[in-house]
């Protein structure tokens, strides 16, 4: 817990200070990645949640164990790019085709009774088309550039990365919007009573994908890009 926290603290900052806040925000449907710059008070508007109640809940969380993701602030930007690639990019590269295949299977079995699956397939395909090239841009262009600049000890002179970062931020917003669409289409990943095992598995996979991508985008937007913010 951080004693400086208040309802004016930015939601991304809570997660930076304590990674366990990410789960609380997920549970409350508060956007801490693309919306990480919003204060807790503003993030609670339209949710029916009392900012003070949420703040108390966050304050009640334990501190993450050392060695867990809690100390991302102490790693260098270059180390963080490697951590993001191995943890989140590798996951997405396997999960996106796996979920697409599962979705096709569930759609062919239940598409006539659950037409929302047709819309879901379209939105999921859009998300995949957005994310797959995005990962490659980070892995081939932005992340190697960050590591190169870091190894050359150019320190704060990171202006070269500001263009690619702007593009990545925009793509994160687009992915965030598509994840919101998917949550709406699936009514918050609620499986219909008659839904089979594959249907259940599909919604679990989608829910995990949403959670992992929120954390992934948070690490890039609110930690990595903040660390290397160009001077000026
Ligand atoms: Fe990424
Ligand atoms: Fe990204």
Written description of the protein model:
Helix 1 (11-17) packs across helix 8. The protein has two domains: 11-69, no CATH class; 75-227. With 232 residues, it is mainly α. The chain has helices spanning 11-17, 21-27, 40-44, 51-59, 77-110, 116-151, 162-185, 197-227. Bound molecules: fe (ii) ion (FE2) (2 copies). One fe (ii) ion binds at residues 134, 138, 168, 172, 220.
What's the gist of this structure?
The protein is mostly helical and 232 residues long. It is 66% helix and 0% strand.
Keywords, separated by commas or semicolons:
single chain, 232 residues, mainly alpha, 8 helices, binds fe (ii) ion
Q: Indicate how many domains the architecture comprises.
A: 2
Give the termini distance in whole angstroms.
Answer: 32 Å
Radius of gyration, CA atoms, in whole angstroms: 19 Å
What share of residues are in beta strands?
A: under 5%
Q: How many E strands?
A: 0
Query: What is the general shape?
Result: globular
* Ligands bound, unique: fe (ii) ion
Assign the structural class, choosing from mainly alpha, mainly beta, alpha/beta, alpha+beta, or little secondary structure: mainly alpha
> SSE order, as H and E?
HHHHHHHH
On the 0-100 scale, what is the average pLDDT? Answer: 90
Report the total helices. 8
Q: Low-confidence runs (pLDDT<50, min 5 residues)? A: none
Layout of helices and strands:
Blueprint: H1 11-17, H2 21-27, H3 40-44, H4 51-59, H5 77-110, H6 116-151, H7 162-185, H8 197-227
Helix pairs in contact: 1-8, 5-6, 5-8, 6-7, 7-8
The structure holds fe (ii) ion (2 copies).
One fe (ii) ion (FE2) is lined by residues 134, 138, 168, 172, 220.
């Amino acid at each position: 817990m951080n004693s400086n926290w208040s309802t004016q603290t930015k939601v991304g900052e809570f997660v930076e200070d304590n990674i366990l806040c990410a789960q609380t925000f997920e549970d409350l449907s508060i956007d801490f990645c693309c919306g990480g710059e919003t204060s807790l008070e503003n993030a609670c508007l339209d949710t029916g949640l009392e900012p003070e109640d949420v703040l108390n809940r966050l304050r009640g969380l334990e501190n993450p164990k050392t060695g867990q993701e809690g100390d991302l602030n102490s790693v260098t930007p270059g180390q963080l790019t490697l951590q993001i690639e191995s943890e989140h990019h590798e996951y997405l590269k396997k999960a996106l085709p796996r979920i697409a295949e599962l979705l096709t299977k569930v759609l062919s079995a239940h598409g006539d009774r659950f037409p929302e699956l047709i819309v879901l397939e379209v939105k999921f395909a859009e998300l995949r088309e957005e994310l797959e090239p995005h990962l490659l841009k980070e892995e081939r262009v932005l992340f190697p550039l960050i590591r190169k600049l870091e190894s050359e000890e150019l320190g704060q002179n990171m202006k070269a990365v500001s263009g690619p970062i702007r593009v990545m931020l925009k793509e994160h917003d687009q992915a965030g919007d598509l994840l919101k669409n998917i949550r709406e289409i699936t009514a918050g990943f609620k499986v219909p009573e008659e839904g089979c095992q594959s249907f259940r598995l599909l919604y679990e996979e989608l829910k995990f994908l949403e959670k992992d991508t929120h954390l992934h985008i948070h690490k890039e937007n609110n930690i990595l890009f903040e660390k290397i913010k160009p001077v000026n």
